[in-house]
Specification:
Layout (H helix, E strand, L loop, with lengths): L2 E4 L2 E4 L37 E4 L3 E6 L10 H7 L14 E6 L4 E5 L9 E4 L5 E4 L2 H7 L8 H9 L18 E2 L4 E5 L4 E5 L14 H21 L6 E4 L4 H14 L4 E7 L10 H11 L2 E7 L1 H15 L6 H15 L4 E3 L4 H5 L6 H10 L3 H7 L1
Length: 378
């Protein structure tokens, strides 16, 4: 069979059989007319793998395509033949499509890398693909060995530039589709290319400093509103700290909603051996805004168990204590009945706010011949 689906993984065998009509639709609930993706408020978990049989082939989706008019499965299947069309939509989704007409496997990952997408070539020239490593490992002939070079890079670069080759993982012979990229596999080749259009806006350099700040803030507001709109009839909370990223997202959401927010902040206790506690600053913000504030203190008893749980879940080393705190906080928020958690996690990576990013920022300025700003920044 050209595409065999096993739990949350799929195996593509090129050239074995052509024709979308002969692709089996697995599991209960088979239908000739594909169902629409879950709509906001449907109660369905968008992070569960959804399978659709389209006229052109089999489609697997994990994550949400946002906005008031997301594409139906037939349209999405057509877009996957030229995934640059995905630029028309805001998406957190990773997509797997077996193109029955061309006998090709087509993959696309969301721009931010929110939804993982892994693949591995198999000895018989087939390709295994899955949205998470544990599912992928179940269909591989043997558990892959760990890549020592990746671990060395991980330790040497404070984790951020471990993926200079952003398709590799910590496991031999296992690869990821980079964020904002697509992959096409057929009988003759496997090719990866970016579908995300990040073309330079020629008007951007003409903006004043305040104009650029206003434009950024408006873009962030639009995206916050878009995500809030996708959560109709679903409960959500906000994680805040003393940083600007989370405070800005929460403040923009509060302005749009016009109601008090439920906000959370995780901090390590003094017994954990860390001197950093952002709870007082977070509480001051919540009190000033009239938000419902719920702190979570993490002590030594959390560290080993949560670290082990997160490493086992991702099959990768724990990157930072921030990851660990966010993992524990997400579990706490979910236990209180909230469906979604907004946060500023990742803001430093996006905005080059960590010192490890500075040399790349400086290189960009030099490549753009912006020597005036380079001089000022350095």
């Amino acid at each position: 069979m050209p595409l065999a689906i096993r739990e949350n993984a799929a195996i593509y065998a090129p050239g074995k059989q052509k024709g979308a009509s002969r692709i089996p639709f697995p599991g209960p609930g088979e239908r000739d007319t594909p169902p629409l993706p879950p709509r906001p408020g449907s109660g369905k978990d968008p992070w569960e793998t959804r399978v659709f049989r389209t006229r052109g082939g089999t489609l697997l989706i994990r994550g949400k395509i946002l906005g008031p008019n997301p594409p139906d499965p037939e349209t999405l299947a057509s877009l996957m033949r030229d995934p640059r069309g995905l630029n028309a939509f805001e998406s957190d989704a990773s997509i797997v499509f077996h193109d029955g007409e061309a006998d090709a496997l087509r993959l696309a990952r969301d721009p931010a890398g929110a939804s993982p997408l892994f693949w591995a070539p198999l000895p018989d020239d087939s390709v295994a693909v899955a949205f998470d490593l544990p599912s992928l490992f179940k269909v591989l002939p043997a558990r892959p060995a760990l890549r020592e070079d990746t671990f060395h890079d991980f330790l040497a670069t404070h984790y951020r530039y471990v993926f200079r080759d952003n398709a590799r993982t910590f496991h031999e012979g296992v690869f990821q589709v980079p964020a904002g990229h697509a992959l096409v596999a057929n009988a003759s080749k496997i090719e990866t290319f970016p579908w995300l259009d990040l073309s330079f806006d020629p008007e951007a350099p003409k903006l004043s400093f305040q104009g650029a700040a206003d434009r950024y803030l408006e873009t962030l507001r639009e995206n916050t509103v878009l995500r809030l709109g996708s959560l109709e009839n679903e409960s959500f909370a906000f994680a805040i700290s003393s940083g600007l990223d989370s405070a800005t997202v929460a403040s923009l959401a509060a302005r749009e909603l016009g109601t008090p927010l439920d906000v959370f902040c995780a901090a390590y206790s003094s017994a954990s051996g860390t001197p950093y506690d952002e709870t007082p600053a977070a509480k001051a913000l919540a009190d000033a805004k009239g938000w419902r504030f719920r702190p979570l203190e993490l002590g030594p008893e959390n560290l080993l168990s949560e670290t082990t749980a997160l490493a086992e879940k991702t099959l990768a080393p724990l990157a930072t204590v921030t990851w660990l705190a966010h993992h524990a906080l997400a579990k706490y928020v979910k236990a209180l009945g909230f469906d979604h958690l907004f946060s500023g996690l990742g803001g430093d990576e996006s905005l080059a706010g960590e010192f490890e990013h500075f040399f790349l920022f400086f290189a960009d300025l030099r490549a753009a011949s912006n020597f005036e700003l380079l001089e000022r920044e350095t």
